[in-house]
Amino acid sequence: MERLIIHVDMDAFYASVEIRDNVELRGKPVIVGAMPDQRGVVATCSYEARRYGVRSGMNIKEAYRLCPEGVYLRPDFDKYRRVSQQLHGIWDPYATASEPIALDETFLDVTGTARDFDDASRIAHEIKRRTADEMGLTCSVGLAYCKAAAKTASEEIKPDGYYEIRTREEFVELMRDRDVRELFSVGPKTADRLYGMGIRTVGEIAEHRLDVESALGKHGRVLIDLSEGIDDREVVPYNPEDAKSISREITFQKDVSDYSLLIDVILLLAMSVEERASRYGLCGTTVNLKITYSDMRSVVKSRNGLRNRDAVSIARMAWDMLLKLPRRPVRLIGVGISGISDGRTRQTTLLEICGEAPSEDELDHYLERMRRKYRFDFVRNREWMLRKNTIHGVVEHMRIQRSRSPSGIERR
C-alpha cells in the first residue's frame, strides 16, 4: 500500500499569531525577534516585511536597515506553544502518527486513516479549513508519498497553499533542474561542496553518484536517494523522553569579560536545564559547556561523571570547565547535559545515599548572594525567570548591574 504523508507548515507563524491577536498590526511589516538595538536575529516576519527583503534568521540590524518602519516585537514563546498545542488538537486526530518538526510544522501519516490519495487530499484541505476557521491562522500543506516530497510540496505554494506529489516520477520531474539547495537536507556547506564538484542541480546529483558518495559518504548516499525520490523514513511521534541532550544558551547584548557574571549566568542556565530534565524525568551523565568569543570562535567542552541532575551539580562542573578556558570577551554561553536516560530507571548513587548531593538550601544560598549583587529576587521569581522569553531579560539586567561594578572572577 502506498504511503500517504501530509506536511503542515504554518505561514509566518509567530508574526501571524501576533497579528491575529492585535488587529492594528494587520497589513504592517511585523518582525518578531530581537529588538533593532540588540544583538540577535529575526525569528520570523510577516509577508509584508518580506517584501522589504527581511527573512527569518537575518541579523536584526540588517532587518532594520531594510525595513526601519517595521513593527518589531519580542517573541512570546509561551503563547506560541499554547497555540501549537491547539493546532495539534486539530491535526493529530486525522493521523496515525504526528511528528512535530517545530512549533509551527509537522508531518502527519494518514496512510491508515485515508482510503486513498484522493481521500488524503480531502483530509489535507479539511486541515487547512479548520486551521483557518478555528484558529484564525493559515497554513501551507503538502501531500505526498514520502516525507521529503511532502515537505517539498508544502513549500511550492506559499502562503495558504496546497500542493501534492503523488509519485517518485513526479518528484524527480519537479526537482530535476532545481538548485541543489532546494533538496531536503542540503544546507549551505553541503551545497558549497556540491558546487565545488560542478554539481548545481538536483538531477546532477544522481548523474555523479560516485563522486557524491566518495566526497560525502553516508550523507552522499542519502542525497542520491532523495534526488531520485527515494525516502523510506517513517513519521515518528516525538517524545521528550527520547531526547539525547538538553541545553540552554544565552547571547549577551554586549560582550562580557566579567567572569563573575559568567559564573552566575551558568547557574541560571543550569537551573533551566534542571527544570526541563525534571519535567520529563530525565537524567544525564555528561555536562557540556559552550562558549562563543567576541571573534565568533566557539569552544565546546564536555565532562563526564554527573551524578545528580540538580542545577548546582551541573553548574559546578560547568564552572570548572569555564575557569580553565582562555579568558577573553564572551559573546555567547551555553550549558547542557547529555548521556540522557529515563530517571525512573536510574540507579541511586552512593553520593545521594550518603546525603552528599547538593541541597536546595545550597542553591538558595547562591541565589541569595546573587540577589544582593544584582538587586533581583531570583528565588521568588524563579518560575517566571526560567521561561524562555524572560531569562534573556534577567541576564541583561544582570549584565547592566555588573557593568557598574569592578569585574573579576569570583570562585565558589
Major β-sheet strand ordering: 5-6-1-7-8
Indicate the CATH topology of the largest domain: Alpha-Beta Plaits
Percent range of helical residues? 40-55%
Helix tally equals 16
From the N-terminal CA to the C-terminal CA, the straight-line distance is 63 Å
CATH top level label of the largest domain: Alpha Beta
Low-confidence stretches: 344-357, 407-412
Write the element-wise H/E pattern from the N-terminal end onward: EHEEHHEHEEHEHEHHHHEHEEEHEEHHHH
Overall strand count: 14
Beta-strand portion reads 15-25%
Structural summary, described in words:
The protein is an alpha+beta fold and 412 residues long. It has 3 domains: 1-164, 2-Layer Sandwich (Alpha-Beta Plaits), CATH 3.30.70; 171-227, 5' to 3' exonuclease, C-terminal subdomain (DNA polymerase, domain 1); 240-403, Dna Ligase, domain 1, CATH 3.30.1490.100. The chain is built from 16 helices and 14 strands. The chain has helices at residues 13-21, 47-50, 60-66, 77-91, 117-135, 147-154, 168-175, 188-196, 202-207, 209-227, 259-279, 311-322, 350-353, 360-374, 382-385, 391-403; strands spanning 5-10, 30-33, 42-45, 71-73, 97-102, 105-109, 139-144, 162-165, 245-256, 282-283, 286-293, 298-304, 330-338, 341-342. Strands 5-6-1-7-8 form a 5-stranded mixed sheet. The chain has a 4-stranded antiparallel sheet with strand order 9-13-11-12. A hairpin with a 2-residue loop joins strand 5 (97-102) and strand 6. Helix 4 packs across helix 5 (117-135) and helix 11 (259-279) packs antiparallel against helix 12 (311-322). The longest helix is centred in the middle third of the chain and has 21 residues, at 259-279. The N and C termini lie far apart (63 Å).
